[in-house]
Amino acid sequence: MINIFGYGVTTKPLVGFLNSLGISVRIYDDKFSGTRGDEFGNLLLDSTLFSNESVDENIALESNALDSLTQESLKTYNLSIISPGIPPTHPLATKAHNLIGEYDFFYRLLRHWRTPPRSVWISGTNGKTTTTQMTTALLESFGAKSGGNIGTPLSDLYTSNTPLWILETSSFSLHYTTYATPDVYALLPVREDHIAWHGSFEAYVSDKLSVLPRMSEDTSAILPFELATHPIAAGFRGRAYFYKDSKDLAMQLGIEYERVHIKEPFLLDGIIALGIAKILYGMCDIATLNAFKIGAHRIEEFVDSHNRLWVDDSKGTNVDATIEAVRRYQERQIWLILGGDDKGADLRPLFEFMQGKSITIFAIGSNAQKIANLSPQYGLECEVCGRLEVAVCSIKKARNAFGNPQPKQNLADVALLSPAAASLDQFSSYKERGDLFKHYALLD
User: Mind listing the pLDDT tens digit for each residue in 155-173?
Assistant: First the structure.
């Protein structure tokens, strides 16, 4: 019997893959109530109903020999495959025998291939999606496809014999991965995030570095300089590039820095993508990188009917991301929408960075009062709006009072949504939050 823990974006395609092999599974999720079946013969169960007591001990012992895991032998195994979103303190994670993450599951199947695909894992606190998309664009001619947190599900990469996997890899996935390894591991800067899930910043950093001890001497890693002395990073056996900033990494990799036209905070993403391509295939296609278009909801600029600049940075879900967004516009008056589910994060570094700048804050979400309490401590004006629609309306009134629009785009001020918090307290996703922000901003 195969158990699936959590029924979300990554595990739904996995269930479909197993069903295509004639394997019905038990799916446990907090959102299910009781027990019911679906049209494919799977059981959908409340998480509280999971128990190891029904497992045949002989099957459980045999399934520990995961090196023998093949597509053909799956029907004989007792495994629990966990969604990366489930924290390690959840009863499903603490009770299950033979717990395995999705990366380990597919990479163990791949080990039996005559020519396994090459793979790149890209992680870090901010910039993973952009770097993954850039790398995939640069290596498209080599058969690269994006996967992991974005793009093509691992099950589809596996069944379509994709020759190069470019995986946006979260700290959650890394936590549940103990076997799989990439050919190149690229780590963007690591800042405080997901502390409640990992338990501490130290544990978060350790999970981000956890793949390094398993990687062989013929692999490569691109890592932040400040982690060079970390015990895990210091023991890496492959070729490591420890970077201080974009220019430093470009110099180490022999990339013509001046020819790259992308601006920060995306410049480092681009240099890392070029570095990955150079490490794997010795190529450096700066022209393709310069033509790359940044995706939606990450410092996405647009103007309203009055030629006023608005910026959708709904993907700015932590302090470091918002600092980078503010840094980009710090010479202007900024009307900043902050707030949401910050998961207990320390917001003081953000306020320290904003102190002394021309910034007015419009607080929304579950931590709005926390933001309002911090603002006067740093000499910042704050209006508690609660809801996004109210914040956008308040910004429009403030901008009208600030000055008349210019004949061309008004560069004196900018309205910026960069919440430094997750969206799920009020929205279904950061995408919904960003889409609504644009909708409200463009209403006359």
Answer: 999 999 999 999 999 999 9
